[in-house]
Design a protein that fits this description.
Layout lengths: L8 H7 L36 H14 L2 E5 L2 H9 L7 E5 L4 H14 L2 E5 L6 H4 L5 E5 L11 H6 L7 E5 L4 H4 L2 H4 L3 E5 L13 E5 L2 H14 L5 H11 L2 H20 L6 E3 L6 E5 L3 H10 L4 E2 L9 E4 L13 E5 L5 H14 L2
Parallel strand pairs: 2-3, 2-4, 4-5, 5-6, 10-11
Antiparallel strand pairs: 1-7, 6-7, 8-9, 9-12, 11-12
Helix pairs in contact: 1-2, 2-10, 3-4, 12-13
Length: 354
């Protein structure tokens, strides 16, 4: 089998994590719904030792990101395993706009462990300087849902205080959009529920580290906290990841078209699109207009989460912890449908919300 460095990421998404090339072996890694194993090898109990399905998924994602991957039961489980390694009194820098679950973890650490929590705008040029002051820099870029873009390269390359970790949430960009470990980040996290899985049918997370010792710590934390992924979820995520390059290419092309058309629509006050990827946000006049538009779509689904083959949209300010989001902002995850069908649906829905 080729190594990740021997092929492009688009090819690795298809060949990574395959079973051994032996006569009669299955072409794809089979589903292994086993909790325990016959004694006599290192594989004993699946809360502590990964099954073949986990290992295949981790090999694929690790190869895409350029590190050692550890799968978790959810994206939040992966984030918690990384963040909860911090000691009492740690200084944490977090984007003002970020996933509310991660913000909740940081706020709980400030309350329960005396963490000093500092929030910065995602695109603030002060981020690199914080690498010399903080214990943890948690970078989400593009951010959720304002789609602000950080200078990940500058942050990762900045001189650091001893022990400072830089963690990048790469869920929106995916490993095909940016590879923070190659820029010097310590850990990358993903909600594999989103683009990696790609079909809105699983819950899974993954953390990837360049340091094998750190990856080992995350693996031990996974076992101790019972944050192990399910066999079916890993099987589905592995299958979904095979088409990530194709899905992302189509979603990104569709998103670029929709962003341009929305920018010229009379009902739209502002479009937020970083110029790549399958996520965009746009502002309507107020919450009532956004709610009406979300109720009126028929091809686009009114649903939360993102990164699936289907287009979805929702008003983010309606969720607790998202009060900083403009009331009329709609976050849209652009899927793989025909873009003209999606636009016709959006255009009609925006008229209903006017």
């Amino acid at each position: 089998m080729p190594r990740p460095e021997d092929v492009t990421p688009a090819t690795w998404a298809i060949v990574g994590g395959r079973p051994a090339d032996a006569p009669g072996a299955p072409l794809n890694t089979p589903l292994v719904p086993a909790s325990n194993f016959v004694l006599g090898s290192e594989r004993i109990y699946s809360r502590n030792e990964a099954t073949e399905g986990w290992e295949a998924f981790e090999a694929l994602v690790g190869g895409l990101e350029g590190g050692e991957a550890v799968a978790f039961a959810s994206g939040m489980a992966a984030c918690a395993a990384v963040m909860n390694r911090l000691p009492s009194g740690a200084h944490v820098v977090l984007g003002e706009d970020c996933y509310q679950g991660v913000a909740g973890l940081a706020e709980a650490g400030a309350r329960d462990h005396g963490w000093v929590l500092e929030r910065l705008p995602v695109a603030d040029p002060a981020w690199p300087a914080k690498a010399g002051e903080a214990d943890l820099l948690w970078v989400e870029s593009p951010s959720n849902p304002l789609l602000e873009v950080a200078d990940v390269g500058a942050i990762c390359a900045a001189p650091r205080r001893s022990g400072t970790r830089v963690v990048v949430d790469n869920t929106f960009a995916t490993p095909l959009g940016q590879q923070p470990l190659g820029l010097g980040a310590d850990v990358v996290v993903h909600s594999a529920t989103k683009f990696i899985g790609g079909h809105s049918d699983l819950l899974l997370g993954v953390a990837v580290a360049t340091d094998p010792a750190l990856a080992g710590e995350l693996r031990r934390a996974r076992g101790l906290n019972g944050a192990t992924p399910g066999a079916l979820e890993c099987f589905l995520a592995l299958r979904g990841a095979r088409t990530l390059p194709l899905r992302l290419e189509r979603a990104s092309a569709n998103a670029a078209v929709l962003a341009a058309r929305l920018s010229g629509h009379a009902a739209v006050a502002r479009v937020r699109y970083p110029g790549f990827g399958g996520i965009l946000s746009f502002d309507l006049a107020d919450a009532a207009a956004a709610d009406a538009a979300c109720r009126a779509v028929r091809i686009v689904r009114h649903a939360t989460s993102l990164g699936g083959v289907e287009s979805t949209m929702e008003r983010r300010n309606a969720h607790p912890g998202q009060e900083h989001i403009p009331p009329g902002l709609i976050r849209m995850s652009v899927g793989c449908e025909d873009v003209d069908d999606v636009w016709a649906d959006l255009d009609r829905a925006l008229g209903a919300g006017a």
